[in-house]
Amino acid sequence: MIPQLIDTHAHLYGEEFDADRDAVLARARAAGVERLLLPAIDAQTHERLFGLCRAQEGYCLPMMGLHPTSVNDNPHWRGELRLVERLLAEPPAGIRFCGVGEIGLDFYWSADYRDEQTEALERQFELALAHGLPVAIHTRAAWPEMTELVRAYAGRGLRGVFHAFTESAATYDTLRACGDFLFGIGGVVTFRRSALAETVRAMELRDLVLETDCPYLTPVPRRGERNEPAHVEFVCRKIAELKGVDPGEVAAVTAANARRMFDPGGAAEGADDTGGAPEGRPSGERAPEA
């Protein structure tokens, strides 16, 4: 067990966990995981997301957004965006959004929807700015385009996490110069031939947060199994090994980073609020009109 772990990116509401979700949550707590951040995908899973976050209030914290692959071949994607906008403005009962996500660009399967994904991403960047919320950014096979877009927002207050970051130290340096951004490190860092390990050695611990992206990207030594939040411990231990520090230090620093960015539990009873985000505004509390 490593106290103070925060899994900043988990899809625990997915059907992959329907058979044993309570046991998964129990294992997460036993491993020292104090909070889970749950990004949205699209309207098909919103009720699952909301139901879990209501049942685990203060432990599972929701985001709201439209995933880039949910734009592909979807004639109703603009309607989905309007739904995201409405939910951010007026969250459902018992829901407090901690960020706008999962949003981004993904050209891995097809680049045919490049323009649509870019439009959706820019709109959601604007929503994040309007609500004073951080973003959780998904990028796959689209790093040049993402870097160019994020650079265009430099100086406007856009902030958040580059989820599942696996790029080079040079890309890290470029992106961190664009604003207040953290980098989500997950199971890939534990893979035997992962170039991410060398990148993490060059990264500042103050720029990192931990994540699983469960049920995907399971770390060694559980690779080949379904991923789950308790496995964030293995990510923490690998980063500690690479940085030459104690795992407890990695957990404490990355948890403070997550609290500062997303305020996960900063206002909850008994939570450590040393890293509350000074500029954040919970969704549902309207931003001033421009």
Descriptive notes:
- With 290 residues, this protein is an alpha/beta fold.
- The protein has a single domain (5-262), classed as Alpha-Beta Barrel (TIM Barrel).
- The protein is 36% helix and 13% strand.
- It contains 9 helices and 8 strands.
- The strands form 2 sheets. It has a 5-stranded parallel beta sheet with strand order 4-5-6-7-8, with helices on both faces.
- Helix 3 runs parallel beside helix 4 and helix 8 (232-243) packs across helix 9 (247-262).
- It starts with a strand and ends in a 28-residue tail after the last helix.
- Residues 267-290 have low confidence and may be disordered.
What would you say about this model in short?
This protein is α/β, with parallel strands linked by helices and 290 residues long. It has helices at 21-30, 46-55, 77-89, 114-131, 143-152, 169-176, 196-202, 232-243, 247-262; strands spanning 5-7, 33-38, 60-62, 100-106, 135-140, 159-162, 180-185, 208-210. Strands 4-5-6-7-8 form a 5-stranded parallel beta sheet, sandwiched between helices. Strands 1-2-3 form a 3-stranded parallel beta sheet.
